[in-house]
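Async update (no meeting this week)

Hi team, since we skipped the sync, here's where things stand on the single-chain job. The sequence we agreed to prioritize is pasted below, unchanged from the tracker. I ran it this morning and attached the output directly underneath so nobody has to dig for it. Comments welcome in thread, and please keep replies under the output.
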Amino acid sequence: MIRIICIYCVWVFAKIFYHHKVYGKENIPPGGGIIAPNHCSFWDPPLVGISCPDKIHFLARDTLFHFAPFAWLIRQLNTHPVKSGAGNLSTLKTALEFVQSGKKVVIFPEGKRSSDGQLHKGQLGVGMLVQRARCQVIPVYIHGTFEAWNSHRKFPKFSGRTACIFGKPIPYLESSLEDKKMAQAEIVDTIMAKIADLRNWYLAGAHGTPP
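Output:
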């Protein structure tokens, strides 16, 4: 119930202040997988959460769970702690458990927020996760959140337009590359290229179905 109330409140907030729109819900397949959005704002996780019709899971550093009331709230919103300073292994292990149990988990391929609002090279961690889980990836382009609340702003700007675009899922395909890191880089580059395609589709007028 808490989760439903929070999603409704954030949805109303996003519609009023940012005229938020969602595209490509029909591209979201059933079952487990990785939801892979670009990342440039504090608003990105909640906007993905209200835009996806399926129940999804988030990973966050464990320091966010030190304040008990806040920890209780974000746990209600399917946010799970991963150890700070443990590198990618803690995150990958937790994400792998979710995907293998048929759940969808949000992983930001770029690893951290973009400082300039542009798409940046993805990190190998998501490629390693896809390799191990052998799962599908749903690319997502989030528009407008950098202008609304980026890492350079202490407080959000309550104006502008945001959108969340879900692309067609990328099925897992065994790479022909023998080198694991090269194969992981190939996976990550494919994901980032798909996100770029979604950005271009939206900026060109958002006609038809997202690619």
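Quick observations from my side:
The chain has one domain: 2-203.
The first helix runs from residue 2 to 18.
Reply here if anything looks off.
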